[in-house]
Every structure is written in structure tokens, then in C-alpha cells.
Amino acid sequence: ILNVEQSPQSLHVQEGDSTNFTCSFPSSNFYALHWYRWETAKSPEALFVMTLNGDEKKKGRISATLNTKEGYSYLYIKGSQPEDSATYLCASPGSGTSYGKLTFGQGTILTVHP
Amino acid sequence: DTGVSQDPRHKITKRGQNVTFRCDPISEHNRLYWYRQTLGQGPEFLTYFQNEAQLEKSRLLSDRFSAERPKGSFSTLEIQRTEQGDSAMYLCASSLALTTHEQYFGPGTRLTVT
Predict the structure, then answer these.
(1) What pLDDT score does A76 carry?
(2) Residue of B nearest to A44 (CA)
(3) For B28-50, how does the pLDDT look when each residue is reduced to its tens digit (9 = 90+)?
(4) What is the pLDDT of residues B82-100, one digit of tens each?
(5) CB-closest option in A34, A46, A98 to B56
(6) Does the distance separating the beta carbons of A104 and B42 come in below 8 Å?
(7) Mean pLDDT value of segment B20-24
(8) Phi/psi class of residue B72: alpha, beta or left (left: φ > 0; alpha: ψ in -120 to 50)?
(9) Residue A47 near chain B (CB below 8 Å)
(10) What's residue A1's pLDDT?
(11) Residue-level pLDDT at B100
(12) What is the tens place of the pLDDT at every residue in A31-79?
């Protein structure tokens, strides 16, 4: 069973604060790690697909890093805005014959207060 | 809009009734996934198709659940004799069967069983 864990479960920050969350995953047979943002009443939106150890990806004020040897990824949001309020999910697509089906962490619920 | 669509967005049904949900994937995507998300948890894999073939079903998927993808285009998920424990958000996603398997999600169908 693939175990993907996220922390914290929820986070409240003030507008303008920078914040980060953690995703941990099994480091053996690593292929990729996906990050999604899921706003209420909308579709989960893909943020990043990370594949290489040491990878760092950026999209506007959001960035992510990857450490496949120790099995963790960080998601950073710089200067949080109320519109960043959402659930942030990480997921592993597994390996071998089951490759592709995503195993998700429980998510981090971010609330940014104006 | 060429994204993934799901219908209906919300469904309220009485225990014991049958329900059917539909997912229309991005047209060129050959993979289609179904996930279920309950409160406080990340989405959990239910089943997936490559073209019209159903390649894997989760142990979560009891025999009351059936999914089809005739002709490899849209998919339906049917739940027979619904139970209160079936209340959840049912998400559909599609992808190309490429290395990263980046998945594009629909907005989900929220099922409430009373």
C-alpha cells in the first residue's frame, strides 16, 4: 500500500504571509509526484508534476521542491492572497503495472484571511 | 470548454435507489479514472479505463458499483442499492497514457444518500 502523507491538515494565515506545506511519500520506486489545488465548487487543478530529485518548479507565487531520496516535497506560497484559499493535494502515480492511478494525501486546507 | 465535464453536479437520493453519473473526458485522452472523496480525506482511486478496457478496480469498489466506457469516450459510474456510506464526491479525471500521467479533473458529482 502506497502511503502519501501531508501536513499540516489545515492552515490559517494572514494575507501577505508566506507559507509552506509538506508531502511525504515512499522513496523507493519513485516515478513522479503531482501537486493539485482544489478550490471549493471547482475542479482540482494541476499545479506541478515533479519527476527529478532536486527539482524546483514555479508558477507565479507558488513553487515546489522535490527530494526523492528522503521522500518529501514542499509546496511554498509567497505573499498569500485570499484567492489562494483552497485544499492543496499531493499524489503519487505509483509504479509498475499500477502506474498512473493516483494515491493522494489527505490534503492541506489553506485559508488566507484578508 | 474542452475540459472534463461531469453530470450531474449534485445528486440527492434515498437509500436503496440506483444512481448513475456521467463523465466526458478531454477528447484525445485515452485514460479515464474515477475517484471518490469523503470529508477530511484525499480522493481515493476507484477504477480506470484505457480506451474502452477497464484495467483496474479498487477493493473499495463493491459489487454494487459498476463502470463502463463504451467506445472509449464518455464513461458512466452506476451505484445500485445506494447506502448512506456512499455519500461522497465522485471525481472523474482523464489523461494521456504518457510518462507523467498528468490528470485533468472534472468538477465532481456530489452524492448525498438520505
Answers:
(1) 97
(2) B105
(3) 899 999 999 998 899 999 999 99
(4) 999 999 999 999 998 765 6
(5) A98
(6) yes
(7) 98
(8) left
(9) no
(10) 62
(11) 64
(12) 899 999 999 999 999 999 999 889 999 999 999 999 999 999 999 999 9
CA distance B45 to chain A (A): 7
Eight-class DSSP state of A27: -
Q: In the numeric block, which cell numbers belong to residue B71?
A: 467506445
E-only strand ranges, chain A: 5-7, 10-14, 19-24, 33-38, 45-50, 56-59, 62-67, 72-77, 86-92, 103-104, 108-113
Q: Is A107 on the interface with B (CB under 8 A)?
A: yes
Give whole-number Cα distances, B80 to A59, A73, B66, B89, B99, in Å.
43, 40, 8, 16, 35
Instruction: Dig out the grid coordinates for A12 from the structure.
Output: 490559517
Query: Which grid coordinates are listed for B109?
Result: 458529482
Chain B stretch 44-103, residues whose beta carbon is closer than 8 A to a beta carbon of chain A: 44-45, 48, 56, 91, 93, 95, 97, 99-103
Q: For residue A55, which of A28, A19, A36, A30 has the smallest C-alpha distance?
A: A30
Report the alpha-carbon distance of residue A75 to residue A65 in Å, rounded. Answer: 7
**C-alpha Rg value of chain B to the nearest Å:** 13
- Out of A43, A51, A98, name the one closest to residue B105 (CB): A43
Q: Could you tell me how far CA A89 lies from the centroid of its own chain?
A: 5
